[in-house]
Amino acid sequence: MRALHADTGYLLYRLGLRSGQLFNTFLQESGLRLRHYAVLRFLATSEGALQRELSTRLGYDPSAIVGLVDDLEKLGFAERRPSPDDRRSRIVVLTEEGRAFLRGTDEAGLRVTNELLGPLTPADRDALHTLLLRIAEDGLA
Hints:
- By secondary structure, the chain is mainly alpha-helical.
- It contains 7 helices and 3 strands; from the N terminus they run H-H-H-E-H-H-E-E-H-H.
């Protein structure tokens, strides 16, 4: 394992898996998974988004977005509406129920993050966040 732990990319991969497992465990009661949660969080920062924009911004396959949005619609957390810019297109919008769900998950989400980052000091957490943000803005934007 020592050789694997010397590989930063592998460590990021493993931490990503662990983070996903923790979030999925906390979301399990709601019937959602981390991928649904990511869509909801993205929609909370916008006035709505085309499904292809969700796919591009979140890095999910377009066919996966269709199923995720279908699931969120069934729960009443999101809905598809006609796009104000193009009547042929539909945008996905967060509903009030979706906003309430997100508000209800804030504390649990913080607990998950605290569990994952438990070994780090507050200064370490800030530094890690800053570095990850720099990488994300350069490579994932």
